[in-house]
Write a structure and sequence with these properties.
single chain, 225 residues, alpha+beta, Glutaredoxin, 4-stranded mixed sheet, 9 helices, 10% strand, globular
């Protein structure tokens, strides 16, 4: 029996759920998965047992007990990533500076980029060739590309790799849904950003997630452009 359970929403739409799922998968950490259909009549009932304000994702860690003897619940994507990284002692760069930068760009992704979030909802089933990009979305995309290039510039030569800091870390998980948005809406990328986005798309975990998302039949109207 796995001591971790991750409660997630629809794989076709739930960018917040994708992040900790992608993180766990790429760190080869085993976990049980519970999928809850969002915005359905049964959603509230299925999420009521969790102290997450009826939101996903939620991580249940039965290896840690609370004061009342119940298992630890961690909600919020970035908090889940931090808990996993702390418990398993992996998931962030080893260097002090790069660990701080990785956390900073992850927090920026967590709290910002409302233009691209609102205009380009994640939808694994859809592809929109030559989709029109508004000015505020273009500003977000330019900043994201600059962040990716900045992360790469901080890697020690002996640790160069395809991920943002050479080896996979929490920052890659935080930006994974943005990659799916850019690809889905045919955002034109160049150089490292293009190669990075393609690498994330071709990642085994991402392919597993996308394949499952495409099989889902539940529809969230607000995420259907």
């Amino acid at each position: 029996m796995n001591d971790l359970k991750l409660v997630i929403g629809n794989k076709n739409y739930s960018s917040w759920s994708l992040r900790p799922w992608f993180f766990l998968k790429n760190l080869n950490i085993e976990f049980e998965e519970e999928l809850v259909w969002l915005f359905e009549d049964c959603t509230e009932r299925h999420l009521k047992p969790y102290f997450s304000n009826e939101k996903v994702p939620v991580l249940v860690d039965i290896s840690v007990s609370l004061q009342d003897g119940t298992p630890l619940q961690v909600w919020d994507t970035l908090a889940i990533i931090e808990h996993i990284a702390t418990r398993f002692n992996k998931g962030w760069p080893e260097e002090v500076a790069n660990k701080a930068i990785a956390r900073a760009v992850s927090a920026e992704m967590h709290s910002g980029f409302t233009g691209i979030r609102n205009a380009l909802p994640m939808n694994c089933k859809k592809h929109f060739p030559n989709y029109p990009i508004e000015a505020d979305v273009k500003q977000d995309i330019d900043r994201i590309v600059a962040v990716w290039e900045y992360c790469q510039s901080q890697i020690l030569p002996e640790k160069k790799g395809a991920w943002l800091f050479g080896e996979f870390c929490g920052a890659d998980a935080m930006f994974a849904p943005v990659v799916m948005r850019m690809i889905g809406y045919d955002v034109k990328l160049n150089g490292f950003a293009r190669d990075y986005a393609q690498m994330v798309l071709e990642n085994d975990a991402m392919q597993e997630w996308v394949s499952a998302g495409k099989l889902e039949t539940h529809v969230i109207d607000e995420d259907e452009v």
